[in-house]
Amino acid sequence: MQNKDGKRFTRKKGAMLLLSLCLVGAAAVSTYYAMDLSEDRAEEEYMVDLNENPQSEETQAEAVLAPEVTAELADGATEMDVDPSTLVINDDSVTVQTETEGETEMMTESGPSAEDGQSAQVSDASGEENEADEETADVISGGVEAQIQPTVSFASTESLQWPVAGTLLMDYSMDSTVYFATLDQYKYNPALVFGAEEGAQVVASAKGIIDSIATDEETGTTIRMNLGDNYTLIYGQLKEVTVSEGDVVEAGQLLGYVSQPTKYYCEEGPNLYFAMEKDGVAEDPFLYLE
Length: 290
What we know:
This protein is of the alpha+beta class. Helix content is about 30%, strand content about 30%. It is built from 4 helices and 15 strands. Strands 4, 7, 8, 9, 10, 11, 12, 13, 14 and 15 form a 10-stranded antiparallel sheet that branches. A 3-stranded antiparallel sheet has the order 1-2-3, with no helix packed on it. Strand 5 (about 175-180) and strand 6 (about 185-190) form a beta hairpin. The N and C termini lie far apart (about 175 Å).
């Protein structure tokens, strides 16, 4: 009887031990799966955080920059502020791109392999052009001209100096014809013809600007001088001219010398052809001579 009770007790004790081991094993398995599940959830939450809060481009850019570049970009006293979106990262260099009014400025910072540790290039040609344009605009708006053209004036009440020392051979005549000995004919004469020795000095009768110096078949080397107010003086039969086109000459200034006459004035001899125009129409110079 006691034997049977002992066996029962042993079986019951073994069953309880087995049940305890099963419970412990189940708890261990549950704990393992719970920990694995927690790690999976933590990884998923970490991935979600990464998706929701991605690392900024600036941080990513700084992570790959050379120490020298990072220090310069982080320093508040640097010459230019860098937008991380303008960084172009290559294998061994970082390029900073900035745009100024249509032009692109490039600054390249090399890694430790570059000479002296870094190399920078900055182009600002467009800024210089803009400054030049602004200066030009200021000059124009201020009324300043690059070249100031000289001006002269001549009133109808002013007088003319005698252009040469000599005698009057032929008078101005546009109302009636006069006789030309060389041509042996009568015709209108729009000028004064002064007889003078060859080589005699010819001077400016008034202040003016030399418009042109040309050779004419009838009057030889001829100067046209602008007096202003649409008045023009014409000097013909000259040689050794001492002025140039565009010169501003004063009254009494030497213009040249009397030359040998052209074939149209052989009989008249050496002379100065002296004419005056107002608005392109012949005027009598004698009326203005002192």
